[in-house]
Amino acid sequence: MTGTLISLISIFIGIIAANLMGYFKHKYSFGFTGNTLVGVFGSIFLVKGFGRLGFDPWSIMDSGYFHSSLFIINCIVSALGGALGLIVIKIIYNKMNK
Q1: 46-60: per-residue pLDDT in tens?
Q2: What predicted TM-score, i.e. pTM, was given to this entire model?
Q3: DSSP code of 53?
């Protein structure tokens, strides 16, 4: 795997997490397109923000060796980023409409 492929998998997991969160918690849903956008940006921001701790895609592929434990942490953080991004955007949306 390359760093780019790991990044794409990470973003895809964020999209899935945001859409599942919107599906099961209807009050946080912005529709499929809105949830997808929030999942993309939420996963990117969280992985970029905390990825410096050592689970960014290029650390996962350090010196040609695939670190599976770092990849699992990256996937979990990506899923959290998608779900938390949906919650944060809903809070901002509610504050803007008051």
Answers
A1: 988 888 888 888 888
A2: 0.89
A3: G
